[in-house]
Amino acid sequence: IKLMEFEHTSQLIRQLETIDPLKNVDNFVHLLKQITTEAQDSSKFREILGQNPKFWVIITKTCLLAIEKLIVGEIIVIPIILWLVRAFRNIVATVTENQNKALEQEWNKIIENILWYCLSQPDSGDDIQYVTIIRSGIQALSNLITGNTSIQEFIWSDFMSRNESNNLLRDTRYSVDICLIRKSLVTSGSGMCILQRLLDRAETLLEDESTQNFELTYESVVYSESDLFPLLFDSLNPPSSLGQSLARRQITLLKLLDSKLFSSDSANISLYSCTRLLQIFDTICPQVIFSMQQVNIVDRENQPQEIEDTSILYTGLVLLLQCFGKLSQDGNDKIRECLFKGGIIASSISLLAQADKTFPRVTKATSSPSLQQGISEFAYIKRDIIRVIGNMAYDNCSVQDEVRRLGGILLVLNQCNIDNNNPYIREHAIFALRNLLINNSGNQKLVKELEPIAPVQNDVLSEIGIRTELGNNGKIKLTTDSNKT
């Protein structure tokens, strides 16, 4: 079998030698596609093909020639370059000897030159051919170093030693997974410069729907090793912002993490990263509560505290709650245990209690524009807290008891109403209440023993002159409001 495979690869190499790539583009590309497919399917094929020196000579010579033609405007060679890059990407995957031979032929520089050219084109973000080459090139560089410590050190040292004008990584449109898996990226000055520029432009790139640059930035950051998130997050708070809980770049990083969790299986987040998220949450919760206590929604002009000063804090809170909401619903028992032991229930209930005092419900019948505007700036907080509590309480008696002990059940009951600034909070609250009560006699008893104290006036009924009152029998009855007649 090995002899047959050796003969097969030798035949492919002879075909590569006999075809003129510039005169027979289609035939040459067809052969490259065959090699790419077989290399993807068989590690043995990759090993045997890579052992033949002629293979490296042919593809290197062909690729350098194609790059020369492309630079002078002969775009007919683009398919050749694309499939050479893809074939190379698959040939070096998990085969150390192939990786070493590729480095000897300086394929790291060849791929880099191709990427430079593609990125320099005005329509590189729109042209599907350039986008495909860029992505394949990134994957090729990643495969070149994966599992090969010596090549990692060589290429990393080369990248990090370059100056500003000669460092491909500093182009904010260029994402290379191979660099984002290194801890030195967040501990070196050059690496931090790269990350900061990526994060500074991430939101701007997101708003530009005409390119795929944001996707490149997103892939760069979110596909790094999960254990690097805490290190990266902490490195983004410069000394000048020590008085602030969160820096803008940290907010951007949280947005990218949030996107990652909601676009994939969040169960792959490490317990280390989960614990760090909880620490961040615990740090900002007291500050958010204090900020809520200072808010006077109606008297906006005379508030002693600028809303802008707290916008980063609230944005960070909402992002963390969204992350916890996703993590708590994915059924990973270790993650949920980490959240519970980290005190997420106590922090969430404290937040909900203060939010319930500070921000009354807003409905369509609310007549005060200043009230609506003020509360809308802090929208979604109560809903997201309820969601976390409900998810955590699912099939977990310890969480159910903790919520009852901290007085959280009544708070959840209070949210079973429509609130325009917390869409679907009523549905989330009903679901949370269900998860708190099921198979928990203590919680069921607490709710059963509740007695009506006073009716809550409905804004819509009040507008038409109808009031709700509590009758002697404990039932609600409707009366006419004399002030409206």
From TrEMBL:
Q: Cellular component per GO?
A: cytosol
Q: Which InterPro entries does the protein's record reference?
A: ARM-like (IPR011989), ARM-type_fold (IPR016024), Ataxin-10/CTR86_families (IPR051374), Ataxin-10_domain (IPR019156)
Does this UniProt record's set of keywords contain Cell cycle?
yes
Q: Provide the Ataxin-10 domain boundaries.
A: 381-478
What are the entry keywords? Cell cycle, Cell division
Q: Which GO terms are recorded in the biological process aspect for this UniProt protein?
A: cell division
- Specify the superkingdom: Eukaryota
Q: What does this protein do?
A: May play a role in the regulation of cytokinesis.
Q: Which family does it belong to?
A: Belongs to the ataxin-10 family.
| Record's protein name | Ataxin-10 homolog
Q: Which species does the entry assign this protein to?
A: Cetraspora pellucida
High-level lineage:
Eukaryota, Fungi, Fungi incertae sedis, Mucoromycota, Glomeromycotina
